[in-house]
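We modelled the chain as a single entity of 84 amino acids. Its sequence is:
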Amino acid sequence: MALTREQITPTAFRPLLNKVKAGTGTGKGADEVYGPSWFAFETMTKFLDGVYQPRSTMNTKFMLDSYKLILHNNYQYKIALTMQ
């Protein structure tokens, strides 16, 4: 199966982006930072900037507790309706 241009471009972009991210950090000199030579890297970085940003974390314990409370209240409400 031949890959399409839409499949090849992100495939080429991700490893380079990972190298750039790994090569930046505190204590690194300008000569130690990786700079890709792929012609489309800068354009892809601008285009996919929001796609590769991590989402904010969720407090799943709080969400689970809230869900349990909603279920409990719903159950209590149904019991109250049947007793009327």
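As a brief sanity check on the tokenised model: Residues 5-83 form one domain. The two ends are 66 Å apart (CA to CA).
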